[in-house]
Design a protein that fits this description.
By secondary structure, this protein is of the alpha+beta class. The protein is about 50% helix and about 10% strand. Among the domains are: about 350 residues, no CATH class; about 90 residues; about 80 residues. This is YfhO family protein.
Length: about 800
């Protein structure tokens, strides 16, 4: 099979697997969304009552942030505007600049052009398909055999990291990791303009995906690969280790790989490509940097960061999930959540390195045995080791990461991406070597562990009294610490945890034991040559995919369309009773920050990890003391509402919602709506003036305010939208200066008379970023297409000198003739 046909065949097989993985949301009429998690709160409770268990309690962020933001992006893009400002959160906040809104993420084009919520499933499917295709191309360029490259390409999309973070911007970035290695490897092999253009494009995609922390991890891994290649060059006296073969993208036959003329040249070209990609992503990176400077998040994280000399408490127990991802259960429906009681992080943080049990215990050791013949085994093993040490907070890697300027404040638990990436590539190398191995080590150990797991599955029932006592104590303590909590509800949660533990754990341990016994049987069959090698390989690939599917299928739930956006009585009430643009505030666990954005309502809080410091300072009395991090996600009680009542009124907050009633007599109007209490606040109007008898008629849109006003005397117009230096204004077409009112809202001077006002959000750093991105885009397009007239070396010889012209001619000659 020619390389081109093999690529098409692989793409079709991968598409079939991805379609099966998302069959319910792509073809079954369901929505890929965890929005049913809202139904557990009193604000959205329906006829299913307090017994309802959502499909996955852990997935709150996609409901409160990412899916509402995708919808907001789509709305603004379809209006021909960039979503620079979000007027629904925190009295208004920068939107594009928060990074995680991922406005320029290419997968969001599916939502921009398609319909919601159906597009969520297609976006997820596209991400995984792209991830698998990139891993296949990388494995092929590294000289993997057919089994190895197919295994790598089919396993990577369903690995733990991509699946657990599927609905987060984290996956938007992580899917490009194999593409970044592939593009970087092309530059190091054969440095030319086209390779630089491809690398710049992929680097830009890594950075616009919407999660700068994961982008840093991916770029760091790629940088380590380049350093490793340079070390190989120095040690062996040549650019890179010669590879068995290189598959050219043009579909040519397998040809011996060509070594770069100099290692220095390839590294320089790689640096140019990465720099070009950073400039390409400036449209997102630069606004994020300015937003961080106006937010307390960086300062808070720096303050909370331990000294690099401190040995942190390791997270070793969670490493078990690299082999058995549900070893501590999860927050899925029907699963016990054992990790909290044992001090283990949630599933998203512990299972990211999962690449299949067979990969970890069989194929990776086989790959390690090939380290002398294939130097990349050393790099992949080292990357996996670094990822493990960093994610488990083990020295010295954890200490080194905390000492670095940017990585010191990132969540390095997500270095499990390095683990999954490396294990799968090592698995591909090991699968290629499977037929070369006449004996398999550890087969007896696998069988012994399998018997131990089966024994544990049988004996777990004897722990029932102990489990009941632990669960009862834990949930009784949680109920006492939660205002307005019903102890009976928490008691039922304890009973559900015990019941699910006694049901799920024996089944999971038993299946894990059977899996190990099957692997041991396959290993013994191979050792005795009872089964042909192709069948053994097929079985290993099949078992790995079944293992990965068994872990990931349903982890990101497909729910009924009616559960994606439930309109509860309190939501209907707020829509009916409040006058826009009045804001709403909720206390306790009800109506978490930003959930109101799903319904076109404004929340006085924000759910973003980055928030404007001036807004948080204004509402400081609202939050309960004792929390170090400055964020609007802090606890709020009725006492805090009363403490900050004047500020809530000033911020145009019209209603406060809680599951318990406010103190008697504290509000003039309090309504009972279903199980909720709504207190009405006599708030200031969103727009007001200090001029007597002023008439104001303004229309408010995201990042744009316009209308007319009439002042009897010159005065100040106050708009209760968060002040930011990016706001601009004109009166009758003439620019006026925007100032801050009470250091948090907008204020502008207006002369006497009737005037036309225009106010819009247009930060200067965004214009600078656009200029940089446009310049980089032109450079990338030029590098990818290189006009034929530029190939003439006569002009170049005069401008560059004969030596440089000859080098550039060599670069251009390496491009296909049709360009």
């Amino acid at each position: 099979m020619s390389p081109r046909r093999e690529l098409l065949a692989f793409s079709a097989v991968l598409a079939t697997l991805v379609a099966g993985f998302f069959s319910e949301s792509l073809f079954g009429g369901k929505v890929l969304s965890p929005a049913d998690v809202l139904l557990v709160s009193a604000s959205f409770r329906d006829q299913r009552g307090t017994h309802y268990e959502p499909a996955n309690r852990l997935l709150m962020d996609p409901v409160l942030q990412f899916q509402p933001w995708i919808e907001f992006n789509r709305k603004m893009i379809r209006q021909g505007r960039l979503p620079l400002w979000n007027d629904h959160a925190g009295c208004g906040a920068p939107h594009l600049a928060n990074g995680q809104s991922a406005v320029f993420d290419p997968f969001q084009v599916i939502a921009y052009l398609g319909t919601l919520p159906e597009a969520y499933g297609w976006m997820a499917a596209a991400r995984l398909w792209i991830a698998g295709l990139g891993m296949f191309l990388l494995a092929r360029s590294w000289g993997f055999g057919p089994w190895g490259r197919w295994f790598s390409g089919l396993a990577f999309p369903f690995c733990g990291f991509l699946v657990v973070w599927l609905l987060y911007p984290v996956t938007n970035v992580a899917v490009w990791m194999p593409w970044l290695f592939w593009a970087g490897d092309r530059v190091l092999r054969r440095p030319n303009l086209r390779a630089v253009g491809v690398l710049g494009l992929v680097t830009g995609l890594v950075l616009v995906g919407g999660h700068v922390q994961t982008s840093a991890h991916v770029l760091l891994a790629a940088g380590l690969f380049v350093l490793w290649q340079a070390a190989v060059t120095v040690r062996r006296g040549r650019a890179i280790e010669p590879e068995p073969a290189v598959i050219e993208d043009s579909g040519a036959s397998r040809l011996p790989s060509e070594e770069p003329r100099t290692g220095r040249r390839g590294v320089c070209y790689w640096a140019v490509g990465v720099t070009l990609g950073i400039m390409l992503a400036a449209v997102e990176v630069v606004p994020l940097g300015f937003y961080l400077a106006r937010s307390p998040v960086w300062e808070d994280r720096e303050r909370e960061r331990d000294s690099p000399w401190v040995i942190a408490r390791p997270r070793v127990l969670g490493a078990i999930c690299t082999a058995f991802p549900y070893a501590f259960g999860s927050q899925r429906r029907g699963h016990p959540h054992l990790g909290r009681g044992l001090g283990v992080d949630n599933l998203n943080e512990t299972a990211g390195g999962f690449a299949g049990l067979a990969t970890l215990i069989w194929l990776v050791p086989l790959a390690w045995s090939a380290r002398r013949a294939n130097a990349r085994v050393w790099f992949l093993a080292g990357l996996a080791a670094l990822g493990t040490l960093g994610s488990c907070r083990l020295p010295p890697v954890d200490n080194l990461l905390r000492a670095l300027p940017v990585l010191g404040v990132t969540d390095n638990r997500r270095l499990s991406l390095w683990v999954a990436f490396s294990l799968i590539l090592l698995g591909g190398i090991g699968l290629d070597r499977l037929q070369q191995t006449r004996s398999v080590l550890w087969g007896g150990l696998w069988a012994a562990v399998a018997l131990l797991l089966v024994t544990g599955a049988v004996a777990i029932g004897r722990l029932e009294p102990y489990l009941k006592q632990r669960a009862t104590d834990h949930y009784a303590k949680a109920a006492s610490a939660t205002a307005g909590a019903d102890p009976a509800v928490y008691q039922r949660r304890a009973e559900r945890q015990v019941s699910s533990t006694l049901t799920f754990v024996p089944r999971y341990l038993g299946l894990a034991g059977v899996h190990l016994l099957v692997l041991a049987g396959l290993a013994e069959s191979m050792r005795r040559r009872l089964v042909p090698s192709p069948l053994i390989r097929s079985a290993v690939v099949g078992l790995t995919l079944v293992d990965l599917f068994g872990f990931g299928f349903g982890l990101n739930p497909a729910i009924a369309r009616s559960d994606d956006r439930p309109v509860s009585p309190v939501i209907a009430y707020l829509r009916r009773e409040l006058k826009p643009p009045g804001r709403i505030l909720a206390i306790g666990e009800e109506l978490p920050p930003n959930v109101l954005m799903r319904y076109g309502l404004d929340d006085a809080r924000n759910y973003d990890s980055i928030e404007l410091a001036r807004n948080l300072a204004f509402f400081a009395p609202l939050y309960e003391p004792g929390t170090k991090a400055r964020t609007s996600r802090r606890d709020i009680t009725w006492e805090g509402v009363l403490r900050s009542r004047d500020r809530l009124e000033e911020a145009s907050v019209q209603a406060v919602v809680g599951v318990t009633p406010p103190p008697a007599g504290s509000f003039r109007r309090v309504d009972r709506v279903g199980e909720m209490w709504v207190a009405h606040v006599a708030s200031a109007p969103w727009a007001s003036a200090d001029s007597p008898n002023a008439r104001i008629a303004l229309d408010r849109e995201p990042g744009r305010i316009g209308g007319e006003c009439e002042f009897e005397t010159s005065g100040q117009l106050v708009m209760r939208e968060t002040f930011d230096p990016g706001w601009r204004a004109t009166v009758d077409g003439l620019p006026v200066e925007i100032n801050s009112y009470r250091e948090v809202f907008l204020m502008m001077p207006v002369p006497a008379g009737r005037h036309r006002l225009e106010v819009w959000y247009d930060p200067p750093e965004f214009r600078l970023a656009i200029a940089a991105s446009v310049f980089a885009l032109i450079a990338v397009v030029f590098a990818l297409t290189v006009p034929p007239w530029f190939r003439s070396t006569r002009i170049m010889a005069v401008a560059l000198g004969r030596t440089q012209a000859a080098e550039l001619e060599s670069d251009l000659c390496s491009l296909p003739a049709n360009n």
